[in-house]
Amino acid sequence: MELLEGEREEIVSEVGNITEKYQPEREKLLPVLQEVQGRLGYLPVLAMEKIAEFLRIPTIDVYGMATFYNQFRLNPPGDHQIKVCMGTACYMVGGQIAMDSFERRLEIQEGETTPDRKFSLERVACVGCCTLAPVVVVDDIVEGHVTPTRVDGLLLAYDGEGRVPAESARQVEAGQQDEQQSEQEGEGEQHS
Amino acid sequence: MYEKHVLICAGTGCISSGAIEVQDALEAELKKHNMQNKVRIIMSGCHGFCEKGPLFIVFPEDIFYCEITAEDVPELVEEHLIKGNIVDRLLYLDPTTGQRVTSHEDILFYSKQNRLVLRNCGVIDPENIDEYILRGGYLGLKRALTMDPFDVVGEVKKSGLRGRGGAGFSTGMKWEFAFNSQNNKKYVVCNADEGDPGAFMDRSVLEGDPHAVLEGILIAGQAIGSDEAYVYVRAEYPLAIRRLRTAIEQAEEYGMIGENILNSGFNFKVNIKEGAGAFVCGEETALLASIEGERGMPRPRPPFPAVKGLWGKPTCINNVETLANVPLILRRGADWFSSVGTEGSKGTKIFALTGKVNNTGLCEVAMGITIREIVFDIGGGIREGKKYKAVQIGGPSGGCMPESHLDLPVDFDSLTAAGAMMGSGGMVVMDEETCMVDLARYFLAFTQNESCGKCTPCREGTKRMLETLERITQGKGQEGDIELLEKIATTVKDSSLCGLGQTAPNPVLTTVRYFKDEYEAHIFDRRCPAGQCKELLTYYIDEELCTGCRACKKVCPADAIEGEKKEPHVIIQEKCIACGACLDRCKFDAVKTK
Question: Topology of domain B4-104, per CATH?
Fold first, then answer.
């Protein structure tokens, strides 16, 4: 992902501020990575290079650590982070279908962020809400029973400025269904 | 003085179904009627019956309402809390009898259970230590502190408690090894890195009864002679982490954690370590490496952590559910504990029952109960009257048990003998529409992705098995693939370094063993009997049932559906991407797959 204007400088200065608090020891790698991600929201390549320089270790070691743990992300998070649950229960009742639908609608692959940085999409192993499967977590809100049609409803509801509460997402979706229902009912009348 | 107590479930499941909205509505409604001082609202931990959430229970009469929305609250307040009439339409509807049920004890989902570890979950306010103490909390610790540490170890050993995290090793023996290790510094580690997809009992215990886990940790610390503990908990469980933090603060305030606990001279400190997300960290040596700030990779044992663990010091690692059992053993005695369960497996086990059953949720049962009782009594049978196919027990390390094994008693040894394992207790029920080959592929994809790559059998073996399974589900299977899978699986099982690799082939081996015909149908007939494998699947519209409402046409992302309004539609196979959107949208069940 291309860095936006001014981001280079921000990354260099943030990493510098964080690393100066630590001794350059290998065992500090994990906390440094966690803190950098905490500040920047992700681990850009440039930041990993700077960290490697500071600890005097190969960049590949930093990259290895960052890719070993699922917590770390290599792309900037979107304004809204979509996490599709791929636990067993979710997978069985259409988790992959939900993931496919998000990928198709957002035109990105899992692990990526839309070019306008509005949405990022990732998979999670299990959020422990198996009874509501398939589950999607948008920001911190758990959305249950996510069918392909709900995917559209969710994206519509979150596609504004700032965060939209779950309730309105449901309303958008319910609205869609009403529309469909009334259309069907209308046609039923015509038949009779 | 409160006249009524309303328990609203505030587990993660119920919150996402709208429990907070219900709470807000109830608070507003009580205020309107000026009843804030008469009715007490308790936001409780998980009741396990997440399927029917949000749950709303009125005490002292114990009336169980389910699937409550904010709109139902005024009626509940007006009718029940003011006039004392039960609101019939909001009670649980028994699917087998068609009757409304008033008390949760009469619901089969609960009546078949034996809730020992979950005794407080959904009953107490997990953020209030007083409620835990009122229900006998910290009595186990108090008793342990008056005993010789060696006798505490002996008591746990005598109880027959086995580790609930997977392999089922004797907890008492683990403690004994740590007890016997001579060192001035020892650690207790609580493994709350619940990474099994489809299992959430540890989360529920931490969210619903965090003090029970803390008490277990403290007892373990006193028994093995440790003064410091780490709780390694998944960062994906923010509510559990928050409640645990609150519990630690309260316990410190009450003198249960800190210096000279309960005037016994015992000092103890509890730290929380947030996991960075790696399934292999459920493996004890990998978990220790992760706490130390390294990549979470396992190392060969021996030396076992009880001898050489965290930072080289003797360390006792137990899982959340195991530790939550400990206070009960100390309070009520080893003999009482071992009276529940079977010969080799004592006590109860919590299962996360999910998949295609009517009642999904968390259930705690005595060891030795049959799969049939769990699926058909507690679970209420298969959804939509479909046929039972198998139950997957133990997550990515477990196996699939077919219909012929329905009467298998659920305990450590029977499950292992049948090719599955207890694992952490995920139980996913499958009906005729689940493809067993695809399920094996799913689990392999998971373990392959989570394999740390240190030892060759696991790194390469899971990869090759996954490739083979992918080929089969794509309709490109060849003769000999089944034998190849079995050969690699056996090798990986026998030669991997840690539990992840040793158990990763289980889903493959059990599905080959019990559902070979499905593999053969994929390989030789290029057909998926369950109608799940995308590449072997065609969507079509039943002309008889299609009303031409255009709903599917509108929703199709690939413009693959054609047809005039009010005329039957057709799916253009060349364009169809098999996304399932039309199937989901159709109100007339006219979209079908073959």
Answer: Glutaredoxin (3.40.30)
